[in-house]
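Justification of computing resources. Each target in the renewal requires a structure prediction run like the one illustrated here; the chain below, 317 residues long, is used simply to show the kind of job we budget for.
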Amino acid sequence: MDTTLIPARLRPPIPGRWLASALCASLIVVVGLLIHIHLLIDAGNRAFVALSGSAAALAVLRWRLRDSRGEAGRRLRDFCEYVLSFMAISLLGVLASYALASKTHGFVDATLEGWDERLGFDWLALYRLVAASPVLQRLGQAAYATIYVSPAVLFFSMAWHGERARARHFLLTYWAAVVLTLLVFPLMPAKGALDFLWHGPVPYMPTSGRWQGVIIPELRAHALSHIDLGALQGLVCAPSFHTVSAVLYLAWAWPMPRLRWVLTPVNIAMLMATPIEGVHYLSDMILGACVAILAIAAVRGWLNRASGATRQGLATA
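Resulting structure tokens:
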């Protein structure tokens, strides 16, 4: 019995032009949004040079190996493609969140906290527990930072085993999840649990700090004119994109026995660290899980329809 995530009829790789079209459309939209609000990317710092150089190196290597017939060349080519696509989707998503944040109004923290109360989740109690334990702080920081470790492991494994269809399916789903997250974000801007619930000196500053409550008002007031790629901060509280990512990573790792028992505990740990290190409410983590599930279902359904239409066309011909 085939336990892989992608049905056999979808095994042929998703055409690269589909992903390229999605990325080009995203680039046009994001650039248009940034121009509209007069927000520029600071191209004069080291972060921009390093990121641009890394992307260029991956693109050149992917192009040079495009016709490679050897196993090593094929694996490296595919890995470069996957990482470059993932970097582009992630960066465009973060930049779009800055542009969209400038058009938001108010904050919905009271609503999110109200939902948490109904769920019986006490964020302050959990924060006090972590603030009193340096060990929990270090573990939480390490777990929260694995958001970019899991995709690297997935891409390496899929490139090594020639699972191009699975990789492109993941990238298309990840893109859809980013788009869905950005569509919901303007409806639910939030400062974050730390900024909203904690009053007085902060005994422990989580990874995400209080940036949402600072940067979003600056963007609304057009007080921020340049984006420093070396100091990008996540602005989306609800839905929690760490939760979106963890659910996607788990969905792709679970059917792969060689990775299941490695990435499952890693992503469960990341989810456990997200309320404090990401200053997230439990309610926006639930929203994030819903976004991931919707993205998985939407892309799988679309691919099923596309595959069915292709088979029908071939049969007719």
